C-alpha cells in the first residue's frame, strides 16, 4: 500500500481542525437551550429561539461532497415558546439547510433526504396587508408536516400549512404550499403534482 505524502496528511489534518472549529463556533453562537437529541454534525448548526428543537436517532447534518460544505451552515430557529422543530430518525440534511418555526410546528419524518439550501418556514413573518406590514399586524402561521421517506431536492422552499405524504419527491427549486399525497413527484412554482410514483 503506498504511503501518504506529508502534504496530503497536513491538508487532511487542516480540514479536520477547520471543520471542528466551525462547528464549535456556531455552537457557541447558539442561544436555544431546548435542543433534544444529538445529530451527527459534519457541518455547523446554529440553534436559536425559545421553542424546542428535537432530533431522532442517527440524524446527519452536512455532506462533505456537496456544494456549500465550507461556506454555509445549518440554521434552525424555533422562535416562540410554542414553536417546535422535530426531525425524525435517520434523516440526512444537506448543506445550508434552514428551518424557522415562528409559533407552530415543523415536523420532518424518518428516513428523509433533504438537498442543499432547502428552506422551510411556518409563517409569513410579516403581514401581507401593506398598511400593516411594518406595524405588527396579523401574521399568518401554519404547521408543516413532512412524512417519512420524503426526498426534497436542492433549493426547494416549503411554506406554512403544508403536508407532504410519505415517499414523495419534491423537485429542486419547487415552492411548496398545501396538501400533497404519498408517493408523488411535486414540482414547480407554485408546486403541483407532476406524476405518481
- Specify Rg, calculated over alpha carbons: 18 Å
> Judging from the principal axes of the Cα atoms, what is the shape?
globular
CATH class: Mainly Beta
CATH architecture: 3 Solenoid
Helix content: 10-25%
Work out the helix count: 1
Order of helices and strands: HEEEEEEEEEEEEEEEEEEE
Low-confidence stretches: none
Structural class: mainly beta
Describe this structure in words.
There is one protein chain. Helices cover 12% and strands 36% of the residues. It is mainly β. The mean pLDDT is 93. The protein has a single domain, classed as UDP N-Acetylglucosamine Acyltransferase, domain 1. The protein starts with 5 loop residues before the first helix and ends with a strand. The protein is globular. The strands form two sheets. Strands 1, 3, 4, 6, 7, 9, 10, 12, 13, 15 and 17 form an eleven-stranded parallel β-sheet that branches.
Keywords:
single chain; eight-stranded mixed sheet; 12% helix; globular
Element layout with pairings:
Layout: H1 6-29, E1 35-36, E2 40-41, E3 45-48, E4 52-55, E5 60-61, E6 74-78, E7 84-87, E8 92-93, E9 98-101, E10 105-108, E11 113-114, E12 119-121, E13 144-146, E14 151-152, E15 157-164, E16 169-170, E17 175-180, E18 184-188, E19 191-196
Amino acid at each position: 500500500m503506498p504511503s501518504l505524502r506529508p502534504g496530503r496528511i497536513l491538508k487532511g489534518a487542516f480540514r479536520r481542525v477547520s471543520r471542528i472549529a466551525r462547528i464549535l463556533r456556531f455552537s457557541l453562537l447558539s442561544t436555544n437551550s431546548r435542543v433534544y437529541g444529538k445529530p451527527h454534525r459534519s457541518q455547523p448548526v446554529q440553534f436559536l429561539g425559545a421553542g424546542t428543537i428535537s432530533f431522532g436517532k442517527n440524524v446527519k447534518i452536512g455532506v462533505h461532497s456537496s456544494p456549500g460544505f465550507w461556506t454555509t451552515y445549518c440554521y434552525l430557529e424555533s422562535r416562540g415558546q410554542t414553536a417546535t422543530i422535530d426531525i425524525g430518525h435517520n434523516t440526512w440534511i444537506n448543506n445550508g439547510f434552514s428551518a424557522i418555526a415562528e409559533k407552530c410546528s415543523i415536523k420532518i419524518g424518518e428516513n428523509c433526504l433533504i438537498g442543499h439550501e432547502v428552506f422551510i418556514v411556518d409563517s409569513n413573518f410579516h403581514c401581507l396587508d401593506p398598511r400593516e406590514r411594518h406595524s405588527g399586524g396579523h401574521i399568518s402561521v401554519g404547521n408543516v408536516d413532512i412524512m417519512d421517506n420524503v426526498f426534497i431536492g436542492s433549493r426547494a422552499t416549503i411554506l406554512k400549512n403544508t403536508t407532504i405524504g410519505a415517499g414523495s419527491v419534491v423537485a429542486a427549486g419547487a415552492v411548496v404550499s398545501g396538501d400533497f399525497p404519498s408517493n408523488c413527484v411535486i414540482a414547480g412554482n407554485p408546486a403541483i403534482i407532476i406524476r405518481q410514483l
